[in-house]
Every structure is written in structure tokens, then in C-alpha cells.
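Can you give me the bound-state structure? Components:
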Amino acid sequence: MSTLVSTRPSVAVRPGKRYRLRRRVGDALTYLGLAAALVFFLGPFFWIVTTSLKGNNDFFAFPPVWIPSEPSLAHYEGLFTRASGLRYFMNSLTISSMSMVSALVVSLPTAYAIARWRFGGGFLGTFLLVLRMLPAIALIIPVYLMYKQLGLTNSYFGLVMIYTVVYIPFAVWLLVGFLRDFPVEIEEAAMIDGCSRVGALVRVVVPIIAPGMAVVALFAFIATWNEFLFAVVLTGIETKTMMVLVTTYTSGGTDMFYGEASASVVLGVLPAFVVAFMLQRYLVKGLALGGTKG
Amino acid sequence: MRISAIALKRRQWEPFAFATPALVLIAIVIVFPLAYSFYLSFQDFDLSVGPEHSFVGFRNYTEALFRDHRFVDSVWNTVVLIVPSLIGELLLGLGIALLLSRVVHGRPIITALLAIPAMVSPVMAAMAWRMMFGVKYGAINNMGRQLGLLDVYFDWFSSPVMSIVAVVLVEVWQNTPFMMLVLLAGLQSIPQELYESARVDGASPWQSFWHVTLPLLKFTMVVGVMIRMIDLTKLFGLIFVLTFGGPGGATETVAFNTYLVGFKDFRMSYAAALSYVIVLGVLILTLVFQAVQRRREARAA
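Here's the bound-state model for the whole set.
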């Protein structure tokens, strides 16, 4: 569907030769503009991927080699063995998966209470929105002191707990929407047939709104994967995430270690690529509510 | 909303039981720390000195607002980074959204591809661009030299102005897709009939853009800019990797400055006070925008 140029014949403009020519030029310019946008927005990814696959000959060559002549995975091997990149990748994977699951488990009943019983009136909704606006920098100082007292720094548990809680507002917000769209009658039927409230939620509601929950889960995964401030302050040598690992390469000054750095960036952006395609339909809603931010 | 028989028959404690886990966690991990931080902001707790601290009243706040040039500069730096970023994201996002709305074939795939920068972490985006800006092996210098545009290896982060330009460029690169998605949704909600009748009345494409599209898109644009502005006050990861606040503090934002005060100087009380000043600023921004929005709605009604 085109907005400015309709294909339907209209009163004012007769579809003459000149009109068709103008439309064709317009279409060509449209695709040209979009091609330029694609180059600008995806170019850096292309360059990072090719750099991570380049051998030394290609890397030091001038004029620059844009497409590696003999691609190799040597930098990934180096990242995994020498820089313990595998460990940090697994840390990120573990922390994000655990935060994703626990955020969902905690948020679902709360969302249910709001959607079915209007729990908390409008107040709870506003409260959650305010929490969402809260800058993380305001939380990190007291949370750091608290965690240090409790010995929770440099632990999976501490990071997962803060990610879970920071993600509750967004998860509840989206889940309330999905639950409101769910017909109450189905739930009532299950309860009349002898299901308890929790039983109806787990056996009837959850399977049906599962696609919606998957959307929330994937956004939660990306948000915790991408989070940096809490990660850099609260993790130690054993629990560093990919985001923290990548910053260690900046200490080399302007001529840093490009091979492993680019390989770690590729691994760090991989989930975003996967999720962007899986969530096409929900991108606006999710991004507008800050779904990719912790 | 329908109220079903079973919903009415509910037991009184049920809603509380359902919401308790989330509320307890929020109380422990958000509300209590914020209260503790508020208490700290009136103390002189400095980890580099020792664990003892005592009440100092509003001293931290008066220092931040009247004596700390570094903080005042960081407020200014944040504004200097926010304004061109917002303008760039709005114009570029609008342009791409208009192009996308004309596309007949392959719109979903092009949209998803263009959205990817908004999905990656600011840290990763900044790292990729930091390497692109690299002096000897960066893509930008190499391409410039290959095309004959540059005759030296240019160090982009040696000058304050170029560093600010670089930060704005990366920020625009990363968040224009968000603006594009929001504006595209807004464009698609404008009824086609309006354009048809504009054309029947003899309006040129430019006129129908100026008199139909823009007025109807204004609200969406305000919302998009507002969300970006509030998020930009938290600019941290991008700065941490791209410039680390340099050169000479030219790109030190409020969030980054607070981080340095807290975790490099270990002045916990002072950092807590700074974070409360930031929270207050964000709150005021949010309220001002809400008021503007409401007035606009009232005028439209």
C-alpha cells in the first residue's frame, strides 16, 4: 500500500504516460533512499563481521581489503581460549536466561491481578510507569552498598535479582494487555469444571497466551543481555558478562586488539539480530516501552 | 468492562497473594535502596576515607548546584549531546518512515533490517563505532584515504568538537530506527481518504505532506521525541566505551559523571545526592512534557 501515490485511478489525475513515468521515477528514488539507509544502518555490522574473519595480511593491507580473501575463525578461537570469552559468553547466557524466566514468573501473577481484579486501581499502573522512568544511576549506588554488605557482588544471584525487578514494570505492562484480550469465559468454564484459580491460570490461560509471553520473554532476554551499568559495577572476574568483556578492549588506546574485539562484538550483537526478526510485529510496542533497556 | 460472576466471588486475599512476590521484590530492591540513598545524600559517607559518616544537611546538594563546576558542566554537556541527537533522529526517522510508507514490496523485511541498531546494546554499538573511528585500521579513515578524501590518519577523539560529533553520530545511528518505527506506525494510522480528497482539491504532494501528514503526525512526533529525551538523560554505556567522557570531560554526561564520583572517587553520599538531582530533573522534564501534551489535546478538542 502506498500512501502518497495511489494505484487506484482518481478524479484529478488521469493515469497518463507522464504520470506513470513520474511514479516510476518516484519508486526508483524511494528504493534508492532505502538502500542508502540500509548501507548506513547495517554497514558497521558488515565491517565488524568481516574484520573478525580477516587474517593479518588482509587486516594490515593498504588499500584496505573490505572482504576477507581467506576468512578464518582464528580470532574467535583466540577469544574463546586466550581471553576466556567462552566463559563470559556463558555468563551472559546464564544470567539473561535466569532473569528472563524469573521476571516472567514474578510478573505473570501480578499482571493477572491487575487485569482480572483491577488490583491497585490506577495507582499500581502509574507506580510501575514511574519505576520504568527511574534512571538506573539512582539505584546503582545504594544497591552496590547493599550488595557489598550482603556479599552479593560478583554473584549470579545478585545480578539476576536486580534484573528481574528492574524488568517487572515492562513485563507486567505487556502481560496485562495480553491477559485483557483473553476471554474470561474460557477461564470461568475451567473453574466451573472444578479447576482452581491457579490451575485455570496455569493449565488454560498460560498455554493460550504463550505467544504473548514469548514476546515478553525475548524482550527480557535482550534487555538483560544488553544491560551494562549494573553489570560493570556488580560483577567480578568470574561473573563478567559480554558487555563488560568488550569494554576491556578499549584500554589498548587507539590501536586496540581488533581481531578479538570485533569477534566479541559479533557475539554480543548476535541475540539482537535473532530477536529483531522474531519480534518484527512487536518491535514498536516493545521499543516504545523500553523493552530493550534494563 | 464485564465483571464476571466468578471474579465477584473471589476471595479477598487472592489479588494480594498474586501480586505479593513482585511487590515484595520491588520493595527490597528498589524502594528500600532509594530510601537508603536519600538518607545517604544527607550524610558525608566517603568510602575512600572510611565507613564512618554523619549528618551534613543539604551540603551535598548545595555543592552540586553551586560549587561543583564539573557537575554543572556535565549538565551542559548532556544538553549539547541531546539536542542535535533528537533533531537528527527526528528528521532522519521521518524521512525513512515516509520512504517506507511508499514501499509496496518487502516492507516488513526492510523494516526489520533497519530496526536492528535499536536492538543492540549501546556498549556494542559504541565498540563497533570506536573501531570504525580507529586511527590506523578504522573503516572511516581507511575509506577516506582510499577515496582520497583524507590525506592523514585522523584521530577523531583528540578534539572535543569531533568527539561530540562522533557521540551524536553513534546515538543517531542507534536510535533513529526507534523513531522510524514510531513514525511509521503513526503514518499508517492516517486515513487514506484524506490524501485522496487533498488530491481531488488539487493539492501537490508537497502540499498534502505539509497540510495533511505533518499536522496529523505532530502528536506521534512529540511522544517519540519525549521518550528519546528521557532515555538520553541516562546516556552512559555509549560514553563509557566511545570516549570515556573525554577529551578533557567534553562528553561527560550527568550519568557518567555520577558514576565516576561514586565508583572512582568513592564519594557515595555525594553520588547519591547527584543521582537525586538527576531524578528530579527527569521528573520535571516528564511533567513539563505531559503538561504540553495535555494543553495540545485540550486545544484540539
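A couple of observations. Chain B is about 75% helix and 0% strand. Residues 81 and 165 of chain B are 9 Å apart (CA to CA).
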